[in-house]
Design a protein that fits this description.
The protein has 269 residues and is an alpha+beta fold. The protein contains four helices and 16 strands. Pfam families: Peptidase_M24 (PF00557).
Length: 269
């Protein structure tokens, strides 16, 4: 990465990267790839599909594109060893870091697919939640709708000169307005040559505070909620995060680039 690097690293994160025009062009290619893989996996994740097949199909598409997985060797302090898979598959009460396992999707399951890939040295990260099959529970659809509207609000609040708190406030206003409580432990983040960078984007916050956005910055904006709690529990696999009450969850995410004129969504499906 030859772009400008500014700021100092926080614990567990890298410094903030500002991409140059050549790197932004690569970021668009990465974003298009991530969008294509998620679109394909959403179409293939039907009733009777095994999560391990989704993972294998994702691995194949990443390899065919000459890209690299950001997940398979990922081993942060909050996980248990390398993740070991190519996509996160979170079902029903699982909301983040869902580790693919031998599970066959059933009608009415709420599935979240979360994917980060590196292509040409630049990362893009995106997630989509949807209901599998013909049974479409109203609670699940409401959760998905809230996160999608919150994501749109966060993107609308972004642009050169905006502050991170402006995005957090916009996201949190939508989520709390829909009746949900917000967990701020995990949220959006910067991306660039690596998957998780500063600045952290909490899903609730005060406007006018935090880092000032500037052209060349990539951000992964990712609202997520749980139906009746803001508390998480971790599965025995050491990775999958679930609602503490067993309630359903949803998660929406796009990678965006801050430009001279505003904001560009790189992972539109």
């Amino acid at each position: 990465m030859t772009g400008i690097v500014i700021g100092r690293a926080l614990e567990g994160r890298t410094m903030i990267e500002i991409l140059n025009p050549t790197e932004l062009a690569r970021a668009r290619e990465t974003g298009a790839l991530v969008a294509d893989i998620l679109r394909t996996m959403q179409a293939r994740a039907t009733v009777g599909t095994n999560l391990l097949d989704v993972d294998a199909w994702t691995k194949g598409m990443i390899a065919d594109a000459g890209a690299e997985s950001c997940y398979v060797d990922y081993a942060p302090s909050f996980g248990r060893g390398p993740f070991g898979h190519y996509i996160c598959t979170s079902v029903n009460d699982a909301v983040l870091h869902g580790k693919p396992h031998d599970y066959v999707l059933a009608d009415g399951d709420l599935l979240t697919l979360d994917l980060a890939v590196s292509l040409g040295g630049v990362v893009a990260d995106s997630a989509v939640s949807f209901v599998v099959g013909t049974t479409q529970p109203a609670e699940s659809l409401a959760l998905i709708d809230a996160t999608e509207r919150a994501l749109a609000a966060g993107i609308e609040a972004a642009g050169p000169g905006a502050r991170i708190g402006d995005l957090s406030h916009a996201i949190g206003t939508v989520l709390t307005g829909a009746g949900y409580t917000v967990n701020t432990e995990f949220g959006g983040h910067g991306v660039g040559s690596t998957m998780h960078q500063d600045p952290h984007i909490a899903n609730a916050g005060r406007p006018g505070r935090g880092y000032t956005l500037r052209p060349g910055l990539l951000l992964a904006i990712e609202p997520w909620v749980m139906a009746d709690t803001d508390e998480l529990v971790t599965d025995a696999d050491g990775w999958t995060l679930r609602s503490a009450t067993g309630a359903r969850t949803a998660h929406s995410e796009h990678t965006v680039a801050i430009t001279e004129d505003g904001v560009e969504v790189l992972t539109l499906r």
